Amino acid sequence: MTDIGIGIVGGGYMGKAHAVAYAAVGAVFETTLRPRLEMVCATSEASADRYRAAFGFARATSDWQALVADPKVDAVIIASPQSTHRAIAEAAFALGKPVFCEKPLGRDVADSQAMVAAAEASGAVNMTGFNYVRTPATQEAIRLVREGAIGDITWYRGEHTEDFLADPDAPATWRCQGRETGTMGDLSPHPINCALALMGPITSLNAVVETVHKTRPGPDGPVQVTNDDHAQMMVRFASGVMGHIYASRTATGKKMGYAYEIHGTRGSIRFDGEDQNSLHVYRAEGPEAGRGFTRVLTGPAHPNYAAFCQGPGHGTGYQDQIIIEARDFLAAIEAGQSAFPTFRDGMEVNRVVDAAWTSSETRAWVDL
Amino acid sequence: MTDIGIGIVGGGYMGKAHAVAYAAVGAVFETTLRPRLEMVCATSEASADRYRAAFGFARATSDWQALVADPKVDAVIIASPQSTHRAIAEAAFALGKPVFCEKPLGRDVADSQAMVAAAEASGAVNMTGFNYVRTPATQEAIRLVREGAIGDITWYRGEHTEDFLADPDAPATWRCQGRETGTMGDLSPHPINCALALMGPITSLNAVVETVHKTRPGPDGPVQVTNDDHAQMMVRFASGVMGHIYASRTATGKKMGYAYEIHGTRGSIRFDGEDQNSLHVYRAEGPEAGRGFTRVLTGPAHPNYAAFCQGPGHGTGYQDQIIIEARDFLAAIEAGQSAFPTFRDGMEVNRVVDAAWTSSETRAWVDL
Amino acid sequence: MTDIGIGIVGGGYMGKAHAVAYAAVGAVFETTLRPRLEMVCATSEASADRYRAAFGFARATSDWQALVADPKVDAVIIASPQSTHRAIAEAAFALGKPVFCEKPLGRDVADSQAMVAAAEASGAVNMTGFNYVRTPATQEAIRLVREGAIGDITWYRGEHTEDFLADPDAPATWRCQGRETGTMGDLSPHPINCALALMGPITSLNAVVETVHKTRPGPDGPVQVTNDDHAQMMVRFASGVMGHIYASRTATGKKMGYAYEIHGTRGSIRFDGEDQNSLHVYRAEGPEAGRGFTRVLTGPAHPNYAAFCQGPGHGTGYQDQIIIEARDFLAAIEAGQSAFPTFRDGMEVNRVVDAAWTSSETRAWVDL
Amino acid sequence: MTDIGIGIVGGGYMGKAHAVAYAAVGAVFETTLRPRLEMVCATSEASADRYRAAFGFARATSDWQALVADPKVDAVIIASPQSTHRAIAEAAFALGKPVFCEKPLGRDVADSQAMVAAAEASGAVNMTGFNYVRTPATQEAIRLVREGAIGDITWYRGEHTEDFLADPDAPATWRCQGRETGTMGDLSPHPINCALALMGPITSLNAVVETVHKTRPGPDGPVQVTNDDHAQMMVRFASGVMGHIYASRTATGKKMGYAYEIHGTRGSIRFDGEDQNSLHVYRAEGPEAGRGFTRVLTGPAHPNYAAFCQGPGHGTGYQDQIIIEARDFLAAIEAGQSAFPTFRDGMEVNRVVDAAWTSSETRAWVDL
Ligand SMILES: NC(=O)C1=CN([C@@H]2O[C@H](COP(=O)(O)OP(=O)(O)OC[C@H]3O[C@@H](n4cnc5c(N)ncnc54)[C@H](O)[C@@H]3O)[C@@H](O)[C@H]2O)C=CC1
Ligand SMILES: NC(=O)C1=CN([C@@H]2O[C@H](COP(=O)(O)OP(=O)(O)OC[C@H]3O[C@@H](n4cnc5c(N)ncnc54)[C@H](O)[C@@H]3O)[C@@H](O)[C@H]2O)C=CC1
Ligand SMILES: NC(=O)C1=CN([C@@H]2O[C@H](COP(=O)(O)OP(=O)(O)OC[C@H]3O[C@@H](n4cnc5c(N)ncnc54)[C@H](O)[C@@H]3O)[C@@H](O)[C@H]2O)C=CC1
Ligand SMILES: NC(=O)C1=CN([C@@H]2O[C@H](COP(=O)(O)OP(=O)(O)OC[C@H]3O[C@@H](n4cnc5c(N)ncnc54)[C@H](O)[C@@H]3O)[C@@H](O)[C@H]2O)C=CC1
């Protein structure tokens, strides 16, 4: 076992999640590389220091360049807003350090291309933070699709729906301004990444991106919402299969609507993030009278599960996804080999997002 | 109570369903008009006579014109293939008889326009056979949407998926030839009608219609499939709301995938035909800790239920939908007033189907 | 096909259900015996005549003896209160007429024994009205258990829960007086019959029968409730298997809680009457990673379904259960051979109810 | 923030779970007391050292007495077999150290009484490891019951079912010998603790405890199974409410069948550990047409959730339950005040288990 110094930029929602993950991952997965919470960075010295104490880091800073450059920081986790991702990643790669970057990789394709170029030039291990694809259930779904368990795929439908802005009277916040924090920018990368993971590349699409609530209450009257609330797209995968993807932040009642269904010639698969510990699988085999969707509860027989519990059906949760992610990043570093989703995979998501905007604006199919 | 002589053209899948419905509807709903199973028509005298005996009709014929013209036939039910609908309906309307016609109304818009014209010229009561919209759950959903229970609608997603041609090795049959028996022609009318019932008119759409399995085994080798297996469309309703509709006969594992979800500013509704006795309703009210989708089991408190059973949750089934339909047709005749879905409503469905084909062929948005 | 004259005693909840069933059964199942709704009986001439007209009977009477004796009444359906079952059945058997009697067979074991004796002396076909056991799903469950699909049974749990008296402020009615209308008398026969159908005879039990709300509001203040609200029993089947049965009319939120789960050495089965069109089956076979409960939607591949619809998953409902029952009674008459549940099977249920009361009073195990 | 040295006895299933929990809990809950993984103990030096390295402890030992006595071990976690619990706890209490002991507290009531006596004599903080009661959903259920949200309780049904010994051909292991490792000894404490947490004390019960598979294959032929496979009990709570509890290790298909349902005069609650992130709540209020069970997804509005994720419905898992437990134990130490379930609460469970055995042997009700 070898010590590895972890530096995390950001101590908010995801900064904390990664801090906990790196505190726990060694014991959970008995990794060869053992993380040391070396340094945390936040916008102010005060907040950085608060995160240091709260999460158990050795040191804190408000200067991400200091963190990146610190000799005791062996790997960099970027958990700050998308506008900051590129510069931080480029700096880390310049020093040859492995980088894990939260989704979406860059604000746009240009950002991401630069980041991929930097990553590939440096040869350092890189990974994008699409945690939802790492649940035991979705890893099992990927395995089933790959091994042909449901035959040739004929249809894919994916979505990610939440309702944090479903109420039209919810006040305007920073979330209501700027493409990169709208639904296409912020939420859709998850279901797009999911589709790519399960189905491979998208070659063309036709999308509608839309702002449902055009204004929201501000302190001095209605404020214009400048980004999108929900978006749908009809897609064509490189495999020839047709699909549909939907993302929404106005999906009243949905809390973790990361869901997909896949039809194949010999079976079907259904997953719903609101019941992340099960996968519904239909197999077109055996007598008709016995067929139906089987609710498979995840357990030690499925990917990424056994380290959390020897008992099947005992369940993993959101935080465990981040622990799995940490394990995979550490394993990649150890192997000197980036793993899905690499920065390149992250960039692919940006390309799809970009194409969707173009399609929505031109009301036409767009090739990728 | 008055006797009414019923003539049914067709004694197959739906002919039987309507025969049973008219045998039972009087006792179930204690209707004023009491149906008498007067005459059934099928392609041969032999089969017609078999249906007569099996379903309890007084007389049989292989000539639908005889049935339509028969003085003891007071109302005509068309349950024969779509190619026959128009001529039969026109003949019946010429005699001023009320007509119930199975979906889809005509083979295409031209057929349906002629049928609407004939219906409206005659002034006779007319109705199209979209039974799925008549379940207590969906009637309740319509009621909730209309009364604003879930606020302003922001998104609609509907589908109708089955898997009777999911197996690529299923042999080519008549179902694999001819637009009107493909998925757009035959299945999609149900979810389109459902969308229109819940959401009102569609004003534009963008569709992809597709044949998944291009050939199927025939007696002398592979046979070309000349119609479509599945289709999706992005739609815009007259209300301004965006939606999506999907229909498939290759949806492995789906048996009665007539399903929809509707998001509104104050709530959401979800329905799945594979559990037709419940409606899932979310209301964005009360403390956050108590919110969630409520599975409402249908009962006497909901439309169309009480006549079947005084106990809630005891359940209605497919055949009951047809009985409800019969009740509504009889009530319309009694009132001299056609009810949803009239022939005009049926024609609207054909128009959407037509537009979807055009859109798919031109790869462009089509206005209706 | 032969005509058979049906006489129904009672035109209430179940009288209507049977009237509809006999109106529809011929067309649905294409039965050899074709029912004619000959006569209906109710307490007053007026109500009997109302039922006649409403349900389509030829004649009405307020004298059940007249109905039983009428030469055009070939078979008698008893759908009047339990206190009337015995006398009507005895009179019908004396004339050698087949009798279908609603559950519970008699008010008590004595009643039922007399009825069984009369039935067996006459040699006439007899049947008890336990409709819930006739759903396609439960018939499939019985088939699976019998053919050993889930191996040797190791545990059975059944219940029937509703909530029509869950509200302590619901006023006292006739339902709150008299053992035969309490939960043990009125509701528990269903889950007991279900247990017997799936598992065979019960040989001993230990029960608690209880009145939850001891008084209820009456017009002049609180009224004593003299029967029971809910009851549980631990049972031992003749097969040696242990089980548990629960019945309640105070199960807040439950509308059709007719449910069971059965564990076997090679699989398990689960059913819930609030989703009567599916059966959940687990098979302990194949790789662990693929195991889980399969939700099998009933369809033409299952018992009693195909006559209602050629499409799987399209669903049957409460009224259809009564139609199936009518088919089975007609088939039994035609065959001259009573079918499960015969009067003897109905009496077995009374014996279990009786033993439960004794057990509850003595707080001890009771052998049957 | 203060450092606290943690010593864990046992490095198996639960030893690991607690090691991970204490590694993560500080960052998750930002606890005042910050755990230091000081020492782990296992049967051999080799295994202890392996656990040390794997989980990140500072030191290892094969002598639990050394661990307990070590000055840097400030709190003792007992995660070794039940036979060892008493001696370790007594030794730790003798030194005034706080003790967390895995369930079941002692092998039997005698053990537990001694442990309670030792705990109370020392005044040290003590806690028993019933983790399942700590999920956000079950904590919310407890809150709802306490605040009267479902009115007066009228019925309770709880169970814990798994299937790890459902296969009769599974070979005999140590699990098949000795009461404390049978279903009553090992599994039933969970659902009993759950019932006590939700409903308060049990005052009498009537149980059947049973070995389903009397022998199992051993290396030299069939081996006698000397403990029980499943058990049921009818219970009476001090509140007067009647209930039922079932535990099984032969419940084919069940993986995490920790489930309960509670009926009250104004609502009902249902929970199933196979979907631990939701609670089903029925409220008997509002119009009948809107009533039903609401599936409430746990989120920041519920107990114990927010520290894991700011987003509702994102889910917690098994390991998170142990982290919550660690938080609660640390908080108790900080407050100098033991929290539910204390050793006394753990002993109550042993008393119920004991009474169940007596009842099963005497086939009679037993008072507690
Ligand atoms: N994978 C997932 O499920 C989720 C991913 N995210 C992604 O994680 C990233 C962070 O989002 P949140 O944690 O929600 O944000 P947050 O607002 O909760 O936290 C952002 C953190 O970044 C720090 N920060 C901001 N600018 C900085 C700068 N210039 N230098 C150093 N530190 C800076 C802030 O001090 C703060 O600690 C985003 O890229 C977001 O898209 C966010 C939520 C969920
Ligand atoms: N609402 C629903 O759920 C469904 C609606 N349908 C619709 O019902 C209609 C009938 O379909 P199915 O019952 O499935 O067909 P089917 O093939 O089972 O039966 C067709 C019947 O029409 C008779 N027929 C055919 N040509 C005739 C003619 N020229 N003159 C007189 N009788 C003729 C045949 O003898 C046969 O009895 C179609 O329009 C179909 O789209 C079908 C299935 C389900
Ligand atoms: N299988 C099932 O799911 C159900 C079975 N039942 C059973 O059906 C039977 C009838 O119950 P409901 O229909 O609910 O009762 P109900 O009160 O709705 O109807 C009773 C009918 O019997 C008639 N009746 C009463 N006394 C009579 C007499 N002496 N002579 C002639 N007619 C008489 C009444 O006029 C009335 O028409 C009972 O045995 C009950 O246990 C009731 C409900 C559900
Ligand atoms: N709360 C829950 O969900 C669960 C609780 N448990 C409980 O946890 C406890 C431990 O069970 P498992 O972890 O499953 O057992 P295990 O067999 O996986 O691990 C037992 C550990 O205790 C150590 N040990 C045994 N005897 C010892 C001794 N005399 N001195 C020092 N170390 C010794 C062993 O070396 C081993 O590391 C039991 O009381 C069990 O009932 C077990 C599983 C689940």
Structure, described:
Four copies of one chain form a homotetramer. Helix content of chain A is 34%, strand content 27%. Chain A is of the alpha/beta class and 368 residues long. Chain A has two domains: 2-130, Rossmann fold (3-Layer(aba) Sandwich); 133-338 and 347-362, Dihydrodipicolinate Reductase, domain 2 (2-Layer Sandwich). In chain A, the strands form three sheets. Chain A has a nine-stranded mixed beta sheet. The first copy, chain A, has a six-stranded parallel beta sheet with strand order 3-2-1-4-5-6, with helices on both faces. In chain A, strands 9-10 form a two-stranded antiparallel ribbon. In chain A, β1 (2-9), α1 and β2 form a beta-alpha-beta unit. The interface between A and D is large, with 42 and 42 residues.
What is the fold's blueprint, element by element?
The structure is a homotetramer of 368-residue chains.
Chain A lengths: L1 E8 L3 H17 L3 E9 L3 H11 L3 E3 L2 H6 L5 E4 L3 H13 L4 E4 L6 H14 L3 E4 L6 H11 L6 E9 L21 H5 L1 H11 L2 E9 L4 E4 L2 E4 L5 E8 L4 E7 L8 E8 L2 E6 L5 E6 L9 E5 L20 H18 L7 H20 L3 E2 L1
Parallel strand pairs in A: 1-2, 1-4, 2-3, 4-5, 5-6, 7-12
Antiparallel strand pairs in A: 7-13, 8-11, 8-17, 9-10, 11-12, 13-14, 14-15, 15-16
Helix pairs in contact in A: 1-9, 4-5, 5-10, 8-10
The structure holds 1,4-dihydronicotinamide adenine dinucleotide (NAI) (4 copies).
Protein name (chains A, B, C, D): Myo-inositol 2-dehydrogenase
InterPro entries (chains A, B, C, D): Gfo/Idh/MocA-like_OxRdtase_N, Gfo/Idh/MocA_oxidrdct_glycsds, GFO_IDH_MocA-like_dom, NAD(P)-bd_dom_sf
Keywords (chains A, B, C, D): Oxidoreductase
